[in-house]
Structures are given as C-alpha cells and as structure tokens.
C-alpha cells in the first residue's frame, strides 16, 4: 500500500520557523508520493482560570476568539497557496475548540489518514499542548505519526533510514507502517541495541526483520550496537548522527495510568532530543 493520504498539523498564532519547516517537509513528502495532504489548523478557545472567569468581560473573550480564528484562517490560506505552488492536492480543516479538546480531536482526524505529521516541542513553544497532541496521535489514532524536529529539515529527503528493532509488537507495527518510505530509500539499516531482541527463528537479532524487508525489494542491512550502559535513545541518536541517517523508524511505547498513556523512556528520550525526523507507531 502506498502513501496517498497525509495529515499535518500546522501552527496558527505565533507560528515561526518550526511550523514552516514542518509544512515544507509535509509538502515535499506529499509531492514525492503523489499524495493528498490535509492540514489541520486549530483556533483555540481562550484559556481562562475558573476562579476569574466571571471577571473577564465577554467582549474580551469574543475578541480573543476572533483573533484565534483569524490566525487559523490566515495559516490555512498560506498553506493552500504553498500547496498550489508545489502542485500538491490539498485541503485545510480549521477547527475551533478548547486546548484540552485539541489533542483527541487531532487523533480522530488522523484515523482516516495513512500518516500524521506533527512537530517536536521546542523551547518556549507557542503551543503548550504540542507534546499532548503527539501522544494523542500515537496512542489514540491507530495510525503512524511522523515527528519533524523544530530545526527542520524542510525537504523530505529520505534516503538513509534506521529501523530500531527490539522484536516487540510496536516495533513491528512501525517497520511495516513505514514500508512506503523504506521501499524508496537507498539504504535501510535494522538497528538492534544490545541483545534483547527476540526472534521468531534462531540467528542474529534483527535478521528476521531484515529478511522480511528484503522481500519487499529493500536494500537492508543489520547493525547491532553493544549494550554499554548508554540509554537506547542516546544510542540510536548517536548512531543516526554517525551514519547521517535521514529518518528513524521505531515503536512508540507507553503504559496506561488512570486511563492516560505515559511515554516510555526511549520514546520520551527520542522526542526530547531528536535532530532528524522520527516515525513512530504504537
């Protein structure tokens, strides 16, 4: 199955370089796969602490709502113009809602896409709920999520890919969801950190996944990183830098606590320190 229907979250008020990088990356990826690209722009309701809600003039609240909607519509128009210039089929969904409703709403919209693109949180981020949106898509949409670092890139140049492999369900899901990207890559490396990856057959950890990918015509190799005590996230990011990788594919892990998902250590570490795009699936 190809990559034909992509969803991207775009920023509105205070959008800066990170949002521009993410939008350009999404347009580049959609163009490379002849895919339709849908943008979601949130016009967020003003957040007023309950204890002072009654003291805030209604006219001020309405003014803030209008400003948020105007910003979302402006972002939508700019996105449409950029998509037209790139020759990418597109649409924009402007959604007015509260901050708390935005993450699950994005997940719902993502359920009928092949891939959802979001951004990494950055220092002094204009969107306080960015991490919550990434987690909602990862754990609630049922679709893979591709996180673009706030430093870029602008172009979806995906030639050298690392597939992090630990033999678990989430890693298998991520590798198979990434197949439309992997088949277009020049080289794919199945990377195993330590020796804990279970295998359906005896042999080198990761070899079974490599065989599966090779049967899709992918140029694949296996790299085993010894367990030296460094955490998995740092080991993967260090290897990605050393090999000039363009993308990491990995399982997104978490555990349920009071009906909310809490990110696992490796997932959290990657999202915090990533310097290249990362595709995750749960």
How would you describe this protein?
By secondary structure, the protein is α/β, with parallel strands linked by helices. The protein folds into 2 domains: 5-148, Rossmann fold (3-Layer(aba) Sandwich); 160-281, HUPs (Rossmann fold, 3-Layer(aba) Sandwich), CATH 3.40.50.620. The protein contains 9 helices and 12 strands. The chain has helices at 17-32, 58-86, 102-110, 130-140, 169-177, 179-182, 207-214, 232-243, 265-273; strands at 5-10, 36-44, 90-97, 115-119, 145-148, 160-164, 187-193, 220-225, 247-251, 254-257, 260-263, 278-281. It has a 10-stranded mixed sheet, sandwiched between helices. A two-stranded antiparallel ribbon has the order 10-11. The two termini are 19 Å apart. The mean pLDDT is 90.
Given as residue ranges, the uncertain stretches (5+ residues, pLDDT < 50) are none
> Gyration radius, to the nearest Å?
20 Å
| Shape-level CATH architecture of the largest domain | 3-Layer(aba) Sandwich
Q: Quote the distance from N terminus to C terminus.
A: 19 Å
Shape: globular
- By helix and strand content, what is the structural category? alpha/beta
Number of domains: 2
Please tag this protein with its features.
282 residues; alpha/beta; Rossmann fold; 38% helix; 24% strand; 2 domains; 12 strands; ten-stranded mixed sheet; two-stranded antiparallel ribbon
Quick structural gist:
Pfam families: Usp (PF00582). The protein is α/β, with parallel strands linked by helices and 282 residues long.
């Amino acid at each position: 199955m190809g990559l034909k229907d992509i969803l991207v979250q775009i920023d509105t008020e205070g959008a800066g370089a990170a949002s521009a990088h993410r939008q350009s990356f999404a347009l580049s990826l959609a163009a490379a796969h002849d895919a339709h690209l849908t943008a979601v722009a949130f016009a967020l309701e003003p957040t007023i602490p309950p204890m002072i809600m009654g003291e805030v003039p209604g006219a001020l609240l309405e003014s803030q709502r209008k400003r948020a909607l105007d910003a979302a519509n402006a972002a939508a128009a700019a996105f449409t113009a950029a998509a037209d210039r790139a020759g990418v089929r597109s649409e924009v969904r402007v959604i007015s809602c509260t901050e708390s409703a935005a993450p699950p709403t994005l997940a719902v919209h993502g359920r009928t896409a092949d891939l959802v693109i979001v951004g990494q949180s950055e220092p002094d981020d204009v969107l306080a709920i960015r991490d919550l949106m990434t987690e909602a898509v990862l754990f609630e949409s049922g679709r893979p999520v591709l996180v673009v670092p706030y430093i870029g890139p602008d172009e979806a140049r995906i030639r050298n890919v690392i597939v992090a492999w630990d033999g678990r369900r989430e890693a298998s899901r991520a590798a198979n969801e990434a197949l439309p990207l992997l088949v277009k890559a020049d080289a794919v490396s199945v990377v195993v950190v330590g020796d804990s990856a279970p295998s359906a057959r005896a042999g080198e950890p990761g070899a079974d996944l490599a065989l599966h990918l090779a049967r899709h015509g992918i140029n694949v190799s296996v790299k085993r990183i010894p367990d030296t005590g460094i955490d998995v996230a740092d080991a993967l990011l260090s290897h990605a830098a050393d090999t000039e990788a363009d993308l990491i594919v990995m399982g997104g892990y978490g555990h349920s606590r009071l009906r909310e998902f809490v990110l696992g250590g490796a997932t959290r570490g990657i999202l915090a320190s990533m310097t290249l795009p990362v595709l995750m699936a749960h």
